[in-house]
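can u pls check wat happens w/ F0G
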Amino acid sequence: MLPQAFTSAPSVDQSNFRFHCIGCGDFPTTAGQDFRCAHCGDLLEITFPRWKDTKPNAEELRSIWSARRLSSERIDLSRVDLSGVWRFRELLPGFSSGEATAGKSDPQVITLREGNTPLYELPQCARITGVPRLFAKHQGMNPTGSFKDTGMTVAATFARRAGFQWVACASTGNTSASMAAYAARGGLRSLVLVPEGKISWSKLSQALDYGAVTCQLRTDFDGCLRLLQELVVRAPVYQLNSINPFRLEGQKTLAIELLEQLNWHPPDHIIVPGGNLGNSSAIGKALLEMRDLGLISRLPKLSVIQAAGANALVRTIREADGKQLVSVRPETRATAIRIGNPASWKKAVHVLQATGGACEEVSEIEIAQAKAEIGAEGIGCEPASAVTLAGLKKLVMQKFVKPDESVVLVLTGNLLKDPDYTIDFHRGDLFKSDTSAEISLKPLRRPPIVLDATLDAVMRTLEQAEKA
Ligand code: F0G
């Protein structure tokens, strides 16, 4: 039987942050289970009004964060300093300023040592795009293989602090994998709603392994999310979709860590895939906050790339000037971003406009090609992440990105997240009925070769590969 204790709004200590409605500007003292404003129904965000009077000092922050990263006293595994998210806790909700500087272990924090992800150079993709200073921030190197972990550690921690026993999400796969893992670590139970047949087996298997109650619903992601909204007002479950503003706070640390890795010299461009649009909103929020706190002197342009078959934000900007959402019926093999009705579209429009970024769409063939090119760098990513490289090529053609500018692609998911896609691509099955696509992609394909188990056969194959 479901516990009956927590049917009301989560009550959490708000001493270091406030909820703020992005629509009417209200500052509610609590957030309802749907994280929407009780007056106007718009989404809530988290703000830090105290920064107005006692602004954290940029130089001090940089040195605290760096000391935590380099500390040789990181032996106590429960210390939050080991997390690449909580290391930046001065810019997160949840710690009072005294606690933050003390850096003490917090038994309530649920962490898998997320964050601390690598920033790679992409020399081959740099040659292909004609942008020499090209980097990838690989969020697929997080504990469950996607960027979701950075948000989940914060939001799951708040779920536990608020006393919830159940957490739930609608997902295209990665959120559910991440949520299930953090719930398991934190002794919480988790409920997953995913569209049947529309998420990769790899992601589904994670949710199962981490012990989630996993429901495959006969609908798409948007249908799952709609149902979740109804569920959370009826049952005492805490929702962990990116509507939950604590998720976005954790995801902000991607941008903070990136700037730290670049020695606080902002890149000219950051390019991110867009699905439900939580991540772009989070990265943009971090950039604006870092600028306001004096951690960076100028804003990178944040651009969002979508699959052409799931291009709600692109159409919202082109057809409605960013003023109202143009929903679409989504279709793409990049299943992580197969979303037609993105919840955080308003937040994303805001950060695009504030940073001067672009919004583009890319075709299925462009995604497949870009994914293979990133793979050929020895890095690899899932299809949704590859939209960033495909989008960059377009932005270079449009001269929005100039060859002398620096660019960071945010790779959101690990290659192993969707092995079926990769195998279909290399076997030539991805665009089976489209011969011209298969011809243009053939040079990038490396199909597996079945041979007799003889030395001769392998030697011949080696010689042929050497000549090719
Ligand atoms: N890349 C990957 C690998 C994703 O899993 C997602 C979203 C995105 C990009 C888009 O991020 O939604 O913040 O704009 N996946 C969600 C999920 C929807 O349920 O796993 P967004």
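The first strand starts at residue 18 and ends at 21.
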